[in-house]
Design a protein that fits this description.
Elements lengths: L8 H22 L4 E5 L2 E4 L9 H12 L5 H13 L1 H5 L8 H16 L2 H15 L2 E2 L4 E2 L10 E3 L6 H11 L2 H17 L10 E4 L6 E5 L11 H18 L2 H16 L23 H17 L2 H21 L13 E4 L4 E5 L2 H14 L11
Length: 378
């Protein structure tokens, strides 16, 4: 794609300014709480052990690091959120596979920006808990805690692996990296299909490690293509490539990106599942678009020439559509409209989602020259 005329500093600056203003304005009400979906113009709050707890403080850090004159109140709120997660870190039963989502965007982010030793300590503890969920026989990180799900793994967990890669580098202990790489290998083998679509859930025998079945999870059906799952496959795979240099992970990211981009509708924002029987009245998922766009920018960053230009152009096309057609007005606290959380559970359908906002702002931040909190420290 020819990006001439699509990417300009003024376009990025305008989108960034509006998003950053939203975050700053919303911080007055949200404070050090944990938003998830927005209802009637305001985010609803979840307890600190919920998987989305990292995204609001992550947003605060994204805005804070970009400012010339730092807004110390944003930093204080982000650090207060991080401190509230200490209780969760100490309550082992509350922890699951989403440890990476939670402490990468709080403690690792804080460490990268401020070199806060307490944050580094927290992140190392979190990484140790995440590493402990690894099933040696099946070579996967277990999802959730229910007894009947002891052998389940999910595509989302690819985004938790950067915490382990980070911990390995910080500690000099390769075990963290070995486990992250082994899980990523399992995902490439068992989750990402030849056409680039992905299963949400794959079930293994926890005793033997044998693959038993797959489940639709938050997608329409077992063999469908949940849009956010494909986005996780894109972003998570390229992150494992960036941390390890193993070409198989980049090839998996390319395969998932090819499927995602080929099947986008005209406005570049997917329906919640690419294989719905009919798209009539089907909800869109702006969060999947934002996640994919940020992952595509990482793909562009590790490639050269026409390939790099292609992925950057596709990311910009998605971001421009989100900016022009999916951003909210002043009556809404969130940034992006029309996210879709969990259709099978009838949760947050056609509503703003905090993680959609996070990845949209993260992608804009990358275009402004910042590294993400998921990638290798530069």
């Amino acid at each position: 794609m020819n990006t001439e005329g699509l990417y300009t500093e003024s376009w990025i600056q305008d989108a960034w300014d509006k998003a950053a203003a939203k975050v700053t304005s919303a911080s007055a009400r949200i404070g050090a709480q944990f938003p998830h979906g927005s209802h009637e113009g305001r985010f609803q709050f979840m307890p600190p052990h919920y998987w989305t707890a990292g995204f609001w403080p992550g947003l605060l850090w994204l805005v804070y690091q970009d400012q010339v004159q730092k807004d110390e109140e944003l930093r204080q709120l982000a650090e207060s959120c991080e401190e509230k997660l200490d209780t969760v870190l100490q309550e082992y039963e509350r922890l699951d596979h989403d440890i990476g989502f939670m402490w990468t965007l709080t403690s690792v982010a804080n460490w990268q920006i401020t070199q806060n030793e307490a944050s580094r300590h927290r992140a190392m503890i979190a990484a140790s808990h995440l590493m402990a969920r690894f099933n040696v026989k099946g070579q996967f990180i277990r999802a959730w805690n229910q007894p009947e799900r002891v052998g389940w793994a999910i595509i989302d967990c690819m985004m938790n692996l950067p915490l382990l890669y980070w911990a390995s580098k910080q500690s000099g202990d390769p075990r963290f990296r070995h486990i992250a790489t082994a899980h990523a290998d399992t995902v490439v083998k068992h989750f990402i299909r030849d056409d680039g679509s992905a299963y949400h859930i794959v079930c293994f025998d926890p005793e033997t490690g044998e693959r038993v079945s797959a489940r639709g999870g938050q997608g329409y059906a077992e063999k469908s293509a949940w849009a956010r799952g494909v986005a996780w496959a894109i972003y998570g795979s390229v992150l494992s490539y960036r941390h390890t240099g193993r070409t198989g992970f980049l090839e998996a990211a390319e395969r998932a990106a090819g499927y995602f981009l080929t099947n986008l509708p005209e406005d570049r924002v997917p329906y919640w599942d690419f294989r719905l029987p009919t798209f009539e009245h089907g909800p869109k998922d702006s969060s999947a678009a934002a996640i994919a766009a940020s992952g595509l920018l990482d793909m562009a960053a590790v490639m050269e020439g026409e390939q790099a230009e292609f992925y950057k152009g596709e990311a910009l096309s998605i971001l421009k559509s989100l900016t022009q057609q999916y951003t909210s007005d002043d009556t809404e606290e969130a940034i992006l409209l029309y996210g879709t959380g969990n259709v099978p559970m009838n949760q947050n359908i056609n509503r703003p989602l905090i993680y959609g906002d996070y990845y949209y702002v993260e992608a804009l931040s990358k275009l402004r020259g910042h590294s993400s909190f998921w990638g290798p420290e530069e």
